[in-house]
Amino acid sequence: MSAPTPRPHDRSLKAAEDEDDPVDQMIARTGCTALHYAVQECMAEHQDWRKCQVQVQNFRDCMQDYQKKRAEELIKKRTLLQGQAS
């Protein structure tokens, strides 16, 4: 008898403890959750990341947009704080 094949990217097997997963929480804050799940579903279906390049690129673009906006917000906030300190 062989061990069951692990399916790390299968979101249909999501357990209750995953509800508090810090990675999921972080991704939810970015607004890229649907794209993240699309990557995971593709990986679960194909078991080959090379066949999921469209999904990976879409998720990557979303995350880069979020990071750019976040950096701009932090710079703006820092500038405001420095102006108040002067």
TrEMBL record:
It comes from the Eukaryota. Residues 7-16 have a biased composition (Basic and acidic residues). PROSITE patterns: CHCH. One of its GO terms (cellular component) is mitochondrial intermembrane space. Residues 1-22 are annotated as: Disordered. GO terms for biological process: mitochondrial respiratory chain complex IV assembly. SUPFAM superfamilies: Cysteine alpha-hairpin motif. Coiled coil: none annotated. PANTHER family: CYTOCHROME C OXIDASE ASSEMBLY FACTOR 4 HOMOLOG, MITOCHONDRIAL. This is Cytochrome c oxidase assembly factor 4 homolog. It comes from Pyxicephalus adspersus.
